Amino acid sequence: MHAITGRTSRPWTMRIALIILSLASLLEVCHGATFPTPTARTLMLIAFPDWNPSPPKGPYAPPRSVERELHVTRSQIHHAFGPGFTTIKPKYKFDISPLLAASFDDSHAILLTIESVYPDSMGIRCDYSCPLATGAYFFTAGAHGWRLSKSVPVVSLNNASMFPHHARVTKWPGHGLLASFRLNYSAQGYSTDKVYLLDLKWSKVVPLFHTSIAKNDGAAEPLSFSLNIDCDSRGVFSPKFSPPRGASLSPDLKCYKANGTWTLSGNSIIFEFYGAVRSTDDSGRLLPVKTWRKKVVLTLQKNGSLKLISGTLPNYTF
Known about the structure:
By secondary structure, the protein is α+β, with helices and mostly antiparallel strands. Helices cover 16% and strands 47% of the residues. It is built from 4 helices and 15 strands. Strands 6-7-8-9-12-13-14-15 form an 8-stranded antiparallel β-sheet, with no helix packed on it. Strand 14 and strand 15 form a beta hairpin. The longest helix has 30 residues.
């Protein structure tokens, strides 16, 4: 009997051992689990389950948004509107839309959002520009996928005429990730762009730098009222452009356009600005095109700030 009992007990021992090994393997898989790089859509739905992910209406419409009340500090408001702005409240209504997503590694990701304030909640008129905030939401991957671990709903507050463009994330070797986007301000045919650079970390976002980067006089300055020729007309900045015979051009006119790019090199950010000017003299005679190009170098310091090393940054206004 004892011999029979010993032989029949062995399979149970083996089963228990197999179960333990299976559980250990499962735990190991869960602990080392990796998930696909999350998209902005995926992270937006985790942070805001009531967000509508359907495509926006029209090619130029901003992404779908979700409404929230967010805290804005006095210093953020003064940065966007100047120290004279006195309508300070603890919360304002915002429409929140996804801007971009990035992964630090297999288990840490970030979602940047753009949040447009409701003008009536801030007590302002929103004719040519509106307040736009940048938000940051941090995610960690666990056994069950990505989860929201931290949020900074308002990293910075700025002024702009339309939804951001040229949004991207760039790896900065030795320093991590750098997010960038442009904000446009337009009024009565004039247009300027500013570029914003954000230093992305696992647990925080640092607004690193911003500068004017583009300008276009657009349709603001008519070269000829009668012929509907303005600074946006095709070929105006070409050296071969000449107005139609008999055209009467506006005197003392200046058409101006400028743009810029930036690249990373070691500890430095290198901006290259270029542009063109086309003018008329006091009698309305079209003058030759003048072009220009310049380089500006900024270097990252040990305290995390950028220092201007060479060149002069533009300040495009109108």
